[in-house]
Design brief:
By secondary structure, the chain is mainly beta. The protein is 5% helix and 31% strand.
């Protein structure tokens, strides 16, 4: 009796990309819940069209990217609003990217420097061909109208 019991099968197969070792393509999808925890004000700021950095409560060191504690002296930091105007400190043109950027390749990433801020801010630069980007170029922050609460909600354009 148990010999006639079988799992149902389909005609669909698996694509074999390599034999030794065996490499196959397998779709995987998952919904992931993620907490921004102490960085939540940064992402809330993006949704309001604001860039927020961190300032050390001890030594006053300023960070363009969020830090809960100072990397210089270890004290806690407080939030402060960054200027929306800066300058290109350095840049790179990316010809490959993750799924979110595939339609935009090639794209330009810039490290933006702000007056009075001691670290740099990484973001995309749009509206200028890569050959025309220059160190020291004035840039201005722009924000997505409909926030996704992601770092890509902000980007820079030439000033």
């Amino acid at each position: 009796m148990s010999q006639n019991i079988k799992l149902p099968e389909t005609e669909e197969g698996t694509i074999l990309f390599n034999v030794d070792p065996i490499i196959i393509k397998q779709h995987y999808e998952i919904d992931y819940l993620h907490s921004y925890a102490q960085d939540s004000p940064f992402f809330a700021g993006l949704a309001k069209g604001k860039l927020l950095g961190s300032r050390c409560t001890g030594c006053g060191y300023t960070y363009a990217t969020p830090r809960g504690h100072c990397m210089e002296c270890g004290e806690k930091t407080d939030w402060f609003e960054l200027p929306q105007n800066g300058r290109v400190h350095t840049f790179t043109t990316c010809h490959f990217g993750g799924e979110a950027f595939l339609k935009e390749t090639p794209f330009t990433l810039v490290l933006v420097e702000f007056d009075g801020v001691e670290t740099l801010f990484l973001s995309r630069l749009i509206g200028v061909e890569a050959d025309n980007v220059q160190i020291g170029m004035p840039v201005r922050a722009r924000f997505l109208r409909n926030s996704k609460f992601m770092a890509t909600d902000v980007y820079f354009v030439p000033e």
